[in-house]
Design brief:
Structural class: alpha+beta
Number of strands: 3
Organism: Variovorax beijingensis
Oligomer: single chain
Distance between the termini: 34 Å
Protein name: Acid stress-induced BolA-like protein IbaG/YrbA
Family: Belongs to the BolA/IbaG family.
Largest sheet: 3 strands, mixed
Order of helices and strands: HEEHHEH
Pfam families: BolA
Radius of gyration: 12 Å
Length: 80
């Protein structure tokens, strides 16, 4: 799976204001900014992203996904 394919998959199920992906095709590191993360703890945010991947995690197309998840306000605060 390419970074573009993974990004499209995540964005098709989760509205993202910003997303970056780095990886080797199986092991990925993502930074994801979404308003859907408002009021959610980190584990809930990660579960929401994993839900977008569906069977891709179970079939090992995406072996590992490490992520940082932010709300738009949290992201804006980091950029200052």
């Amino acid at each position: 799976m390419t970074a573009e394919q993974l990004q499209a998959l995540i964005q098709s199920h989760l509205p993202c204001e910003h997303i970056t992906l780095e990886g080797d095709g199986r092991h990925w590191y993502a930074t994801i900014v979404s308003a859907e993360f408002e009021g959610k703890r980190a584990i809930q945010r990660h579960q929401r992203v994993y839900a977008t991947l569906g069977a891709k995690m179970h079939t090992d197309e995406v072996h590992a996904l490490s992520m940082k998840t932010y709300t738009p306000a949290e992201w804006a605060a980091l950029e200052k």
